[in-house]
């Protein structure tokens, strides 16, 4: 399973990249605003900086909600760097734009997906990635993981090549469960990745090894 980090924070992106396990980055307008990145020029420059900091795919979301606007914005974003994946919302114009970009060989990520039907449409439109939002479904007492399982089943039935990018991942159990059910990618905060390191037996075992080494020297 590929690991993407879901942030626009360059320090956190670099930390995940340094760990050697990062496969890409996802951002959204809220994450950009959280880092104080506002205005078209600054936003485009920030995407360039993110692409320079990582080796993999970088999802950059369009703001337009009409087809022509999405195409215009998406073409500017895609021209920034071959790593850019044009992120489109799951609305009719987004599906149409997804088909347009996939026909041109430009990578796409269809976002804000909350049902199997939406995931099916994204795959039919040739999306590179589909982003079901696991955490946001869990937030409203709906089983987000079950949705991802169902999408896996449907995609496998027909051999769709669209990769399931489990988004809105919030913690390490989300990551582990996504891996168990065969999600192709997960995107979450840095803590959902570094949290996987933690085990008290690792810490106590290492402390014991070091103490025993000291005794013999
Ligand atoms: C997906 O690409 C989104 O950026 C993201 O995963 C949303 O996560 P949230 O529900 O924690 O805001």
From TrEMBL:
Q: What compartments host this protein?
A: Cytoplasm
What is catalysed by this protein? D-sedoheptulose 7-phosphate + D-glyceraldehyde 3-phosphate = D-erythrose 4-phosphate + beta-D-fructose 6-phosphate
Q: InterPro entries of this UniProt entry? A: Aldolase_TIM, TAL/FSA, Transaldolase_3B, Transaldolase_3B/F6P_aldolase, Transaldolase_AS, TSA/FSA_arc/bac
Q: Which UniProt keywords apply?
A: Cytoplasm, Pentose shunt, Schiff base, Transferase
Primary location recorded for the protein, binned into one broad class: cytoplasm
Which EC numbers does the record give? 2.2.1.2
* Pathway info: Carbohydrate degradation; pentose phosphate pathway; D-glyceraldehyde 3-phosphate and beta-D-fructose 6-phosphate from D-ribose 5-phosphate and D-xylulose 5-phosphate (non-oxidative stage): step 2/3
**Descriptive protein name:** Probable transaldolase
PROSITE patterns in the record, alphabetically? Answer: TRANSALDOLASE_1
Q: Which NCBIfam families does the protein's record reference?
A: fsa_talC_mipB
Q: Which gene encodes it?
A: fsa
What task does this protein carry out?
Transaldolase is important for the balance of metabolites in the pentose-phosphate pathway.
Q: Which family does it belong to?
A: Belongs to the transaldolase family. Type 3B subfamily.
The UniProt entry, under Pfam families, shows: TAL_FSA (PF00923)
Active-site residues annotated for this sequence: 87 (schiff-base intermediate with substrate)
Q: Which organism is it from?
A: Wenyingzhuangia gilva
């Amino acid at each position: 399973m590929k690991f993407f980090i879901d942030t626009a924070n360059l320090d956190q992106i670099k930390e995940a990249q340094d760990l050697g396990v990062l496969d890409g980055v996802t951002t959204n307008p809220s994450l950009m605003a959280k880092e104080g990145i506002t205005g078209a020029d600054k936003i485009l420059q920030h995407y360039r900086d993110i692409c320079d900091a990582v080796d993999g795919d970088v999802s950059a979301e369009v703001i337009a909600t009409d087809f022509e606007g999405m195409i215009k914005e998406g073409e500017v974003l895609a021209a920034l760097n071959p790593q850019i994946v044009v992120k489109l919302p799951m609305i009719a114009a987004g599906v149409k734009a997804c088909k347009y970009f996939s026909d041109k060989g430009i990578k796409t990520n269809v976002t804000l997906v909350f049902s199997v039907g939406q995931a099916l449409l994204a795959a039919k439109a040739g999306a590179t990635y589909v982003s079901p939002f696991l955490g946001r479904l869990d937030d409203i007492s709906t089983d987000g993981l079950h949705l991802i399982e169902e999408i896996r089943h449907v995609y496998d039935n027909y051999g769709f090549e669209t990769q399931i990018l489990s988004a809105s991942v919030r913690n390490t159990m989300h990551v582990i469960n996504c891996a168990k059910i065969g999600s192709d990618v997960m995107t979450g905060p840095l803590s959902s990745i570094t949290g996987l390191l933690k085990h008290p037996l690792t810490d106590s075992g290492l402390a014991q090894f070091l103490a025993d080494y000291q005794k013999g020297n």
